[in-house]
Amino acid sequence: MIHTPLCDLLGVQYPILNASMSETATGRLAAAVSNAGGFGMIGGTSSGGAEWVREQIRIARSLTDRPFGVGFISCFPEIDELVEVALDERVHAINHSFADPARFVPAAHDAGIKVFAMVQTVALAEQAVASGVDVVIAQGGEAGGHGGHLGTFALLPSVVDAVGARTPVIAAGGIGDGRGLAAALLLGAQGVWMGTRFVASEEWGGERFKQQAVADSTADDTTTTTVYDEIWAEHFPPEISHRVLKNDLVERMRGKESEIAAKRNEFQAEQAVATKGENRRIAGISAGLAAGLVDSTLPAGEIVRQIIAEAEMVLRNRPAELLG
Fold first, then answer.
1. Which helix (DSSP H) or strand (DSSP E) does residue 220 occupy?
2. In this structure, are strands 169-172 and 40-43 parallel, antiparallel, or unpaired?
3. Is residue 29 within 8 Å of residue 198, measured between CB atoms?
4. C-alpha span between 252 and 263 (Å, rounded)
5. Strand order of the sheet with strand 145-147?
6. Cα gap 245→154, rounded to integer Å
7. What is the chain's alpha carbon radius of gyration, rounded to the nearest angstrom?
């Protein structure tokens, strides 16, 4: 059975975490992943604010007695109120992305809560470990949604070399099956963080047409853009981009993103209509390169079990094929 020190740290059976996808990684999804032996994560940044976060935590608690956590886009202005809910509810872990986690660590540790930090460079990993985080998530540019630009399997071993002796490192970005888990473990990761694969889970909380679009796509069908960040006035650090499925809007506005602000209300209205009408040509659909590994929707628990079984098979058989 695949087991790493991370499993002991988090109190889980398998080193698989679902990404804390904003608004769509619900309490139901987190509970399903945790019940299958992984570590479920709720996406705590949502239009529903603090009460939505509290509701999702309580939904997860009603469905599982196993550990789970909440993740935030920590560069957003409402972060303090949202984190306070997670602290008050005593979740098992809180993940911080796109911001220095240092100021969040003391209160979490005082509450007995583990702190994760998602990083996109070695320097950020070193900064996070110096601040006292318990786990570092090395996120490559293959990830869906927001992320950096370095490749996962180039960034990962560099982060492991820099901080892995002190702090567990989790791999994120482009991992969608057991082969990816096996590869990450061989490169020194103690677990994997997966978003796109869990978009195609029955418990994912987003729109079904977006889920189907991901299942219909290949690794060739994604691109990075700032179009949707401009439309929704979501300002991430300048080195962070947004990986989505290619569509007409992204291509039409490429190089013209600065024009969006003057007509933001019109673009937002267009998005509302596109989402309601299930229009893939206009609606923003976050997806990573792992979309090429996804062709069906399954219960989240089944996804966890399949990935573990495949990774175990690869780790048993492939070395013998190469070295025998």
1. none
2. unpaired
3. yes
4. 15
5. 145-147, 241-245, 222-225
6. 24
7. 19
Strand partners, 17: 39, 193
Q: How many residues does the chain have?
A: 324
Cβ atoms within 10 Å, residue 233: 10
Q: What backbone torsions phi and psi does residue 195 show, to the nearest 5 degrees?
A: -105, -60
Q: DSSP character for 92?
A: S
Pairing of strands 68-73, 40-43: parallel
Phi, psi torsion values for 230, nearest 5 degrees: -65, -40
Residue 285, SS3 per DSSP: coil
Both structure tokens of 152:
């996962």
The β-bridge partners of 170 are 137, 191
Nearest Cα to 69, choosing from 90, 50, 49? 90
Report the DSSP beta bridge partners of residue 119.
Answer: 138
pLDDT tens per residue, the chain (324 residues)? 899 999 999 999 999 999 999 999 999 999 999 999 999 999 998 778 999 999 999 999 999 999 999 999 999 989 999 999 999 999 999 999 999 999 999 999 999 999 999 999 999 999 999 999 999 999 999 999 999 999 999 999 999 999 999 999 999 999 999 999 999 999 999 999 999 999 999 999 999 999 999 999 999 999 999 999 999 999 899 899 999 999 999 999 999 999 999 999 999 999 999 999 999 999 999 999 999 999 989 999 999 999 999 999 999 998 888 887
Which domains does the chain possess?
Answer: 11-205+290-323 (3.20.20.70)
Q: Output the CA angle 212-148-270, nearest 5 degrees.
A: 45
0.90 exceeded by pTM: yes
Q: Which helix (H) or strand (E) holds 71?
A: strand 68-73
Yes or no: say if 311 and 205 are a contact pair by the CB < 8 Å rule: no
Q: Which of 217, 240, 239 lies closest to 289 in space, CA to CA?
A: 217
Distance CA 166, CA 93 (A): 18
